[in-house]
């Protein structure tokens, strides 16, 4: 098994995702990036994509491969437009094990995103346990009927329709695991959905990829309602639990390696007063928990 505990996060790279989330260091904690319309959803870029740029700047500013992101919270003040954005990273405190940084993303002099990120070193030999419920014993959640989640290769891919799908949809491979058809209003349906997810051009799954995946799946509220609505994010928090046990190797075929695939589950247990809460989790293909997700969104 390959140890990825100190593998550095790339600040740019060859895949579309790495290129579109790349940051350019300008000195003194300042960075520049560019927002691409390839990751557009309805009226602007996907929040997970924007968060990935912010997190990449935080990692680059700390510049210590041993200090990996532990937690990141993003507050979205306004949607950015296509084009350049500025990022200002401040190291608020750096202790023996944890570094705390703040990041401000702005465009045209207006603040877009305000983020707090904690990065830390791995602490081996401490208390470890995993009591995440897995009724099937695979590490992955069960379907609502108690059955096991099929392997991603057993679920047909839904073709992308360039005329109807949002641009970001074509950047991901998605395999539907469970949940009602969006906007179908099926009797008894709940805001609970999940499935397999990977970037089509799949870089190694690190924390920057995970924060993008944390907001890439369909909002679960879509499975509960019978009409279209929008749910822009107010804030997003991701707690990172690890990386896949083994990084992706050479592609094993047109579908790529298992390690590029993650299973995601999202639910919205509460919607009240025009806002909803969304809970989520991300697992690797072996059932190892990689991230916990929580966000607050406006219901429009």
Provide the β-strand percentage band. 35-45%
CATH architecture annotation name: Beta Barrel
- Please count the helical segments: 3
Shape: globular
Secondary-structure element pattern, one letter each: HEEHEEEEEEHEEEE
Sheet with most strands = 12 strands, antiparallel
Protein described:
With 300 residues, this protein is mainly beta. The protein has one domain (16-122, 138-298): Acyl-CoA thioesterase, double hotdog domain (Porin), CATH 2.40.160.210. The chain has three helices and twelve strands; from the N terminus they run αββαββββββαββββ. It has a twelve-stranded antiparallel sheet, with helices on one face. Helix 2 packs antiparallel against helix 3. The longest helix has 16 residues, at 47-62.
Helix-strand layout with pairing:
Layout: H1 16-20, E1 24-27, E2 30-35, H2 47-62, E3 68-76, E4 83-94, E5 98-107, E6 110-120, E7 172-178, E8 192-199, H3 207-213, E9 233-240, E10 262-272, E11 275-284, E12 289-298
Antiparallel strand pairs: 1-2, 2-4, 3-6, 3-9, 4-5, 5-6, 7-8, 8-10, 9-12, 10-11, 11-12
Helix pairs in contact: 2-3
Compact overview of the structure:
The chain is mainly beta. The chain contains three helices and twelve strands.
